[in-house]
Design goal:
This protein is of the alpha+beta class and 146 residues long. The protein has six helices and eight strands, in the order ββαββααββαββαα.
């Protein structure tokens, strides 16, 4: 499971160190694509296959489905680690996530983690934390027992 929060720096060649705990679960590489709130979503190979299978089950005659799939699949790329445990982020993904130098990597469950610009993540996290009780109540209404 990917969990925790890690801070790293993006270098001038768009290289980013992925936390060792995550690398141990990912093997030689993984898939990264555009995510919500100007983040990047990164998937283990197994996680990507599951995600892609779910995408393929959506009705392609729906315009929103086609738009979503185009954004996700056109933005997706496989990345591999160099000897220092770094990946190279493609420019289109860097631009989507509005990444500067300071990067926050957060665990997001069994097969996924997210990559954020640190300043954007800190603002997002502060906003969400202020609404944590409301979010918890909504999840309880959906049947999630906290």
């Amino acid at each position: 499971m990917f969990m925790g929060t890690y801070q790293h720096m993006l270098d001038s060649k768009n290289r980013l160190i992925i936390p060792a705990k995550f690398r141990n679960q990912l093997g030689s590489g993984f898939v990264i694509t555009k995510g919500n709130e100007h983040s990047l979503h990164a998937y283990s190979q197994a996680g990507w296959e599951t995600y892609q299978s779910k995408l393929n089950q959506l009705p392609s005659n729906n315009a929103k489905v086609r738009q979503f799939k185009r954004i996700i699949l056109a933005g997706a790329t496989e990345v591999e680690f160099d000897k220092q445990g770094r990946i190279v982020l493609p420019n289109n993904l860097k631009e989507h996530a509005l990444l500067q130098k300071s990067i926050t990597i957060i665990g997001y469950g069994d097969d996924e983690f997210e990559i954020w610009d640190t300043e954007r993540f800190e603002q997002y996290n502060a906003d969400v934390t202020d609404n944590f009780d409301d979010i918890s109540n909504e999840l309880a209404e959906l049947g999630f027992d906290i």
